[in-house]
Every structure is written in structure tokens, then in C-alpha cells.
Amino acid sequence: MSDTPVLEHEGAVDDQFSVIQRLYEESLKTLDEGQLLKGLIVAKSNDELLVDIGGKSEGVVTARELSPGLSIADLKVGDTLEVLVYRIDSEGDGALYLSEKRARALKTWEKVLEAHQRNEAINATVTQVVKGGVLVDLGMRGFVPASQIRRQPVGNLEEMVGKQLRLKVIDLDHKRRRVVLSQRVVLEEELNQKKQELLATLQPGQIREGTVVRLADFGAFVDLGGIDGLIHNTELSWGRIKHPSEVVKVGDKVQVEVMKFDPEAKKVSLSLKHSLEDPWKTVPDTIHEGDVMPATLTKATANYLLVELAPGVTGMVPKSEFDPSAPPEAGATLQVKVLSVNVGSRRITVSLKTEGEATDAAAQANVENAEDTSSAAAENATT
Q: Which of 68, 88, 218, 295 minimizes the number of CB atoms within 10 Å of its CB?
């Protein structure tokens, strides 16, 4: 009788061992090549890791199966690692060969597919310049053609290495798991969004901030945030200018007033001078009839001369004051006497005769003004 309990105990142990062995064998059967698992590093050497992936199964990760930038020295026993089973030695001892970099690439591919389906942008860093464009690190390699990096051509692609791009997928090769991406698509979508928002809110009379993007002989083009507007030379300054470069340069941030806006044609006329202090506000206190002062000749015609008395403030010299066949040259500094000041119409008449004879000149100027000075008045009013 004393032997019976021992036999029962041994039988129970055998049964328990059989169950464990069966569970272990079943756990091995669930493993397959291509499977993605999380494992625990249980041992390491200089060139490989031993990773426990559960079910008492352990696999090997060699140094070359780690992602670029990750080394065995960076990892320690006890760290978790996501791996992919890429080979099972079924003919030998059943050894499992695992890969961290393939696991990362697989997960990245799934994220790329999801982002493509949702039309979402992906952030990635440029790692290398290749023929026709650059490579980016998505967790896998992606290719960005040079024409798809920016809206404008990139001069030196080497300058892009290390920079982060916001990208959308424009082409996929499912078989080879290759992806072509574009940042230009993202930038153009954002620009179109800004345009729509701007078109919905832009109104004449508004003061807007913009960036000077281009200069022409007739004016400066300003980016308001998706739409370019034009500042004509006459609206760049209260004074007369020959070229917009006298006032602004490309890249300048400027405060401009919206003068006209055609939403259908998407044309915007802007003014820089209207957002600046009007120099004529100081004229009543600084320029008076009878004043003798220096002036700069800005324009000479057969009927009149225009001289700048102060920045943005001009005066007119009538034709009786000079020889139309040999007028002074533009840019010359002249001494003039103020004959009349009309702030309401923004007109000042001056004489080159600064002594007593200026009285007769004033009378003659009044006659000439009454006859025809409309062209000079119109020009004076714009400046």
C-alpha cells in the first residue's frame, strides 16, 4: 500500500510534463516566417543578440539585421525589441533568425499605405543624394525626385541632407515595396488652402502684411499669403521714384493697403504709401508763401518743372520761369521761392526768381495756372 501513492504521483508528474511539452510544441508551430513579434533580449555578444519571443522560443538577431543607426552596443539585456521572423531552420535544429530592421520596414510600409489611403503627410529626414533626387528615412527608404522637393527648383541637393521634409505618397510599388514621395504636393495644397482663406476675407481698405517677391520697372509684387498683389511705383512712396528698388527689396516684409481687388481675376492692387504717414500733413506748418528754400528738380517738360521741396511734397515751376528748349537737368538742386500753397488740392507753385522779380512771376504763374496746368496738377496729386 505504501507504493501506491508514489506511483500516482509519478503518473501525475508524467502527465504534467506531457502537457508542457505539447504546449511548447504547439507554440513552435505557431511561428512562421514573416511573423512580427515582440521579444526580450536575454543575452548578447559583440555581433548578435539572443531574443526571447515567447513560448520558450529564442531567436538570433545579428548586427546586420539592426536598423541603420542602431547597434548591438546601444542595446542591453532586458530591452524589448520588435522583430520579424525571416528564417526558420526547419531542416536543422529549428533555429529562429530574427530581424529588427525588417520588422521596422514592414511596420513602416503599413503606415505608408495607411497615410496614402488617408491622404496624410509623413515626416521624414533626407539621408542621401542620389541621381534625380534624394532618399529619405521613413523607417524604410523612400525616394523624393528633385522636382518634388519644393515649388521652386533646389539649386544644391546636398544642402537638403539632414533636413526634415513633409511628404505625401505619389507612387507605390507594392511588389518591391518602393515608395516615391513629394513635398511639393504638400506645399501646393497648403498654398491653395491659404488662397481660399484669403479670397474669402480680402477687402479694399484693409491693411495687410506681405512679402516682396519680385520687382519690375513699374512696381513691386507682394505675396499676401497665397496671392500676389502689385504696388505700382506711384503707390510705393509719397515721393517720386524711378524704380521700386529705391524703396523695397525682395524679401522685405511690408504693411500694405488693399486698394482694389478683383476676386474673379484674383488681381490685387496695393499701396505702400497709404500705410505710411502722409507728408502733406506737415505742409501747413513747414512750407509757407514767400519761403525761399532748396528743391530738387524731379521732372522737366515744355510746360512746367516739378521740384521736390520735401520727401513726398512737390512744387511746380511755370513755363515762364525757364527756357523750354534748354530746361535744367533732373536731379539739379535749385533755390526756389514759394508763391502759393493749396493743401486741399495738394498744389504748390514756386518760382526760380527768389528776389523782388518773383512778384511778377507770381502774377504770371496765376495766369498760366488758369490756362492749363491739369497735367502737372494730376501728377502732383499722385505724389
A: 68
